[in-house]
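Hi W.,

Here's what went into the run:
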Amino acid sequence: MKQRIGVYICHCGGNISDYVDVEQLGKLMAKENGVLISKNVMFACSDSTQKEIEQDIEENKLDSIVVASCSPKLHTHTFRNVAIRAGLNPYNYTQVNIREQCSWAHSDKPMDATIKAYGLIRAGINRVSYSEVLESLEISAQKVVAIIGAGVAGMRAAVDLARMDNQVYLIEKGNTVGGHVAQAGRLFPTNENGKEVVDRLYQRIRQQSNITLFTNATLEKVSGSIGNFWIEVKLGSEELKLNVGSVLVTTGFDFYDPKEGEFGYRLSDRVITLPDFNKMVENSKGKLIHNGKSVKSVAYIYCVGNRQSKGENRYCSRQCCTAAIHSSLHVHEKFEDMTAYHLFRDIRTYGKQELLYQQSSKNGDIYIRFEEKEPPVVELKNGNPTIKVKDYLTTKRELTLDTDLVVLVTGMVPRTDSNSVSSKLKIPIGIDRFFNEIHPKLKPVETVIKGVYIGGACQGPKNINESVQSALSGAAKINATLKSGNINLEPIIARVNADSCLWCGKCAEVCEYDAISSIANGGKLIAEVNKATCKGCGICAPTCPSNAIELAQFTDNEIESMIDGLMSKAEISPRVESQQNNQKAGVQSLAGYPKIWRTIANALEGNTLTIPQIAEKIDQEASLVTWHLMTMNRYGFVESAGLNDNEDYFMYKLKK
Amino acid sequence: MSIDKTKYDALVVGGGIAGQEAALSLADMDYKVLLVEKDLSIGGKMIHLSKVFPTLDCAACITTPKMSETARHPNINLLLNTNILEIEKDNGIFSIALTIRPKYVKEDLCTGCQLCEWVCPVIVDDGFNNNMVGRKAISIAFNLANPKVAAIDMNHCIKCKKCEIACVPKAIDYSMQPQNISIETKTVIISTGFNLFKPENKPQYGYGKYPNVIDAMQMDRLIAPTRPYNSVVRPGDGKIPDKIAYVLCTGSRDTSIENAIGCSVDCANNPICSQICCMYSIKQAQLLMGALPLADITIYYMDIRAFGKGYEEFYQQAKGMGVSFIKGKIAKITQKDHNSGDLILRYEDVTTGTLKEAKHDLVVLSVGVLPNNEIAKVFTNQKLELDDQRFIKQVDELLSPSLTSIEGVFVAGTAAGPKDIPDSILSAGSAASEAASYINNI
Ligand SMILES: Cc1cc2nc3c(=O)[nH]c(=O)nc-3n(C[C@H](O)[C@H](O)[C@H](O)COP(=O)(O)OP(=O)(O)OC[C@H]3O[C@@H](n4cnc5c(N)ncnc54)[C@H](O)[C@@H]3O)c2cc1C
Ligand SMILES: Cc1cc2nc3c(=O)[nH]c(=O)nc-3n(C[C@H](O)[C@H](O)[C@H](O)COP(=O)(O)OP(=O)(O)OC[C@H]3O[C@@H](n4cnc5c(N)ncnc54)[C@H](O)[C@@H]3O)c2cc1C
Ligand code: SF4
Ligand code: SF4
Ligand code: SF4
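Here's what came out:
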């Protein structure tokens, strides 16, 4: 049991303290068994607080710490590092989440939020008092990377990984490289040709002797874990087993395939998708010809298969507005007297792509805006399309358009086989059904499986530039991980008690990661946990009939003590306004400060007033009074005295 | 003054989210990095923000650990309050001349206790809070600054010596001088970020004239946990707003900007879209619905550009919460009645084709992204090219997004064009990968 516990309860700048009475909790926790220090801090994660905790650990020889702030997903590593720097074992630290689980979840009931936080923090203290010293597991790692999918994203990452001295296996299921870009003609924004871009990239791959490209390769099975994955690949009749340290998944996307009858698709050959249209534009010379007929007018219908507020694909495919407009520019440049109608919802030519939109408008392209609730209707007479649409740009006027072609601006959808890829690699799928990163800002290319990264459009719609940037980010992360040849792994894994284990095999049956096998030990078989493969999910522990397998940091002692902590009755009293704001100020004099401060202070002497009232009283602009009063508030000369009767202004009083 | 030229693998210029990410990525690969920031703290624009779309995480909660990791990384050296004077390339090595501006506070002694700040009688505009409130002539840049060290604003200091007396560790030193140093590096990463459009340049919107017309950065401050006021109130008179308008595309997608305030060439006409303002406005609207449940919020837009992962869903969520979206171009904003401080927005309602007027008590101008390209001038014997919009030019946009016109110089984040935080971070990772590949093959 720990006897020198430090407890840090965070305000999170109001995120927590606006609802949870952190000051009171701080005082209550100071009385808990084993707690030596209990403090309230403004931002636990800030640099200055980190230093303060380190200092406390060193000076008071703390044997464990509890930080009650936000989700452990955010800051576990931050505070583990604090512990390490101060010479404390990082596993003698417990994170308690009183933000997502208390203040944010129960902002309507501050008292209950405080009571819940009380239980959670006590549980944390109890748990940390049983915490053990654990050492991270060091394993050696192969400086070898498997990249699944040789589109632009995968190819480009291969080049840099190879240039950073990693051996690369580039695994492509098709018989050519380049993915969708290899099929594309002229590309935005540089007007390069898709095939040429892929050729250029392919030349760079050829220059790297440490890249091995497999085409027509099928990903069969993946086992192992970071540092030592085994990738089984089928090449025709041949089977390969590759030992790699890390995996980058760049399997890209599929074009949305409109349903039969969706805007007349498949009912007339004059309704086609944007990728097919692009090919036609690329292949036509002098005149735009479709099935032998010359095309003079085109209607583009945007967001087909996307932004369906009630349908399957709620997301926006990000690059299709620009792709369609870019095609239209290309058509205008290549063929004479073309008419283009763009039936859109919002034009999303973000950033510099806006210039393409402007150019298209200058070319005389006609833009017609519709809303999801009133989409255009394509009617077919003898295969000739007529579009009826209400134009929200001109008082919802009903328009009828007869065009030679209707181009469906289709977006991106996840690959049809992405489920099979995700289940082999255990990558989670998001609600949009693309692969999911851990966090868009903190870990944008990492997946929950250590050592498995995602890049390019398999993670969600992206243009080429964005796909390449995300794949290269993955390359940078992978190189940093593999560079030294060693990887440190979490010691929070299952462990077996050799005495009580009878090797019934129940734990091995439930383990999703195949981490448990049997081993001979003292004349009997017992379970053995593969340390690198075990993910610490804990599913094995409750299945063991003889209680012989447990998870480090989640032992029975720890869990039971947490339950005790949660069950304990809270003696929380109603909140008293905190004193912590700038106590020093009260004694300050206003001498030397701007004159208007003294005028404002005089006006407030014995009064509580709103800003317009002060302004009127001292005959100054209300905006000037606001600026000064807020500054006085900040430095502790005045404070808020609640709302006025109309509840539209705060009143202020002098701070005594 | 040190004469010994310290040698680095990489110099990262600018400590916003992109610069931090690039520096950390390279440092994690065991390269020695010097990160140079012109301001008093790293953090860039992101540390000013409240919560960030599309996940609505608190910006400080995501940035501060990153700042702290950057400041502590054994492979990263940090220089703050520092200007780059010259970058010269010879035989593939960059020689950099730098000057560290004095803070008049000794960094190694200052504990960040703020005793000096309490006693200083001189009040100046608080830039961190976009001048909506004052601070002292000596202060810590902001609560979460890293490093947390005080600095004196010598333009306003009256040398009353109160701070010197109050400072227990005796950190104040009025005689500090700028310090010039030079270093050598193999690569340079430009992550100098962007400038915000100055709304004074759109005089018909009344910014600077009517106190209740604010820009979006000011609104992000008003709703941040480290906000300047005790609640969301109007800077004009402290009123709790209940009818808030957002004017999207202020200073973006606009070729009629006349540069009324005569700043440099990069703040007049701006034909491109700023890529972030639709989304940050929707974010602020959602946060305001939480802070002021009774307020009406109207967003006047041209197109809603909710294009990223989860963004369209975020937009639909705002609609579901009751934020009004009106497709309309704002022609003029006027304040009819000085006492009420309320504003009249005249606009063309695109859907009905009519000219309309609406009254709001607070107007937020969703200002756009302009290039910050000053750094191009310090290259003496090489030319760092700019693109047509005067962002740092990406010479191989499709296949090597971080390459610039100078071999060995890479660009990350918004220095190359508008980007939100997730995209800035990815572009920084990509710059780190390209820089590391380059160093490895010199
Ligand atoms: C109509 C349209 C026009 C476009 N025009 C442009 C443009 O002009 N400019 C621009 O910047 N962007 C454009 N884009 C976007 C561009 O196509 C994508 O950004 C780019 O293709 C993404 O590259 P990627 O490598 O991630 O994916 P992909 O191109 O989809 O490549 C993925 C690769 O992985 C392989 N693969 C998939 N699954 C497996 C598996 N299980 N095992 C092995 N290999 C696998 C595939 O065969 C493929 O080779 C356009 C998109 C569309 C829809
Ligand atoms: C009001 C507002 C709200 C926003 N909200 C969101 C949001 O919710 N979600 C989201 O994803 N994005 C949001 N953004 C966008 C976000 O701010 C940017 O994507 C991000 O800050 C870009 O980071 P950066 O590092 O490229 O640039 P910056 O943040 O501009 O950082 C650049 C850094 O470089 C320094 N610097 C500049 N020049 C030099 C020089 N010559 N020498 C040394 N140092 C230099 C600067 O001082 C600064 O520290 C918002 C933007 C605004 C304006
Ligand atoms: S990019 Fe444009 S066409 Fe594509 S889904 Fe988004 S709004 Fe629709
Ligand atoms: S010497 Fe300058 S900074 Fe210090 S207290 Fe006086 S005015 Fe403020
Ligand atoms: S992101 Fe939205 S508000 Fe910003 S410039 Fe683009 S369209 Fe306008």
